[in-house]
Amino acid sequence: MKPMTAARAGLVLVATVMFGCTEDGPTGGTPTPITFTLVTTRQWSGGAITLRSSQANAGHAPRLVYAGDDSTTATPVGDTTYRFTLPTGPSGPVLIRVGLSGGGVDTAGTVTRVGYTNTLTLDGPIFGLSGWSPDGRPAILGYEQGSYLLASADLQTGTVTEFPGLTVAGTPFYPVSPGFAAGTVAARDSLTDSSTAWRLTPTIARLAVLSGDDQFNARQVVWLNDSLVLRTYHHSARLDRVNGQFVRTIELEEPHRVSFSPSRHFITVTAAASFGHFGVTVFDARSGDSLFVIPLGRMSGVAFSQDEQVVYGVGDGSPESDSLVAVSTASGATLRRTALPVGAKGLAALDDDATGQIFLTAALNGNAGVLVYDASTLELRGTLTTDQGCGAYCEGTSLFDQSGHKIYFAGAEGTPQQIHVFDAIP
After folding, report:
1. Which of these, 59, 106, 331, 379, is most buried using a 10 Å CB contact count?
2. What does the pLDDT look like over 225-239, one tens digit per residue?
3. Which tens digit of pLDDT belongs to each residue from 125-149?
4. How far apart are the first and last CA of the chain?
């Protein structure tokens, strides 16, 4: 007999177990065994698992469910259906046993828990991180400590590649933001000491000089398009023409990370709302016009849906910003809003249109983790936890590799730089 392949095994969605308890058959003869079916066989850490009984028999309902070394209770959701929460933990198989109110403990089967997998340590320390995908591979872009040279780290191998002669265009310690065109970034050219747009892959090439007043006091310099440059400062941001002509000032406080929508139509900055305003501005990256605000007093993460109809903003867990919000890009109206779990500090948001989910990388009671939400309802689907602390300054960047079904989270900038890796359900 040929062994079952992984693909064939993946088709087995139901695990059934017979218990010692029985009911008399329809004619009072041979007893009919009571069976329970483990309906859910793969689920997020902290997600819902469904059990189904072959008979409606309250006397033999599940009393306790044992998931690995943890135990929990099952809640009836129908005459024959029960639901319980899979305990949080790392990716891997979890043995499910059911204790019956009528006595006895039986094995129901195994659930594949989807969560944290491992932590990747980079070959060299990188700061000012932003996710990007040169050549279609998941990577992070930043700069080397001390030299401020731009560098990229491959998240599949951990290999760090430096870009000689190119240093941070803005102030060190703030994220390096890729430009509007694939593989591009604004960097300071060590030969001319000017901010310049560069293509980094597949070969390094100078594209344009990004002129502007006070350019070296900016936190970040971001190439928005062929004609516009964004510079962020402590209490504001400003738009300039590539030739240095001033366009306008954008009101915000403590800008941190610049985020484009997939087509580079929309752009926003994770920041605090400016005084007298409640919300962080989203604007048109092509014209520089303000469009609407995301209603958070302090936004720490943002993600646009692939069709760009919805933008999701996450607060940092402070009293005025303890929510995940979904906003229409067409009208600026708030579509949905939900509070973050107690003890959660949102850091970044990632969109998975293929499965209709939003991933929030977060500090969960001080440890690196991921919260999984339904993009349509903002219902919490999973809580992916680790025992990896974020430290006093829990910050960093995140990247979702859809083809590899991995979530990468740089939880805290430091030496050595560590990237926490989580599985994702395709």
Report:
1. 106
2. 889 999 998 888 889
3. 677 888 888 878 899 888 887 788 8
4. 30
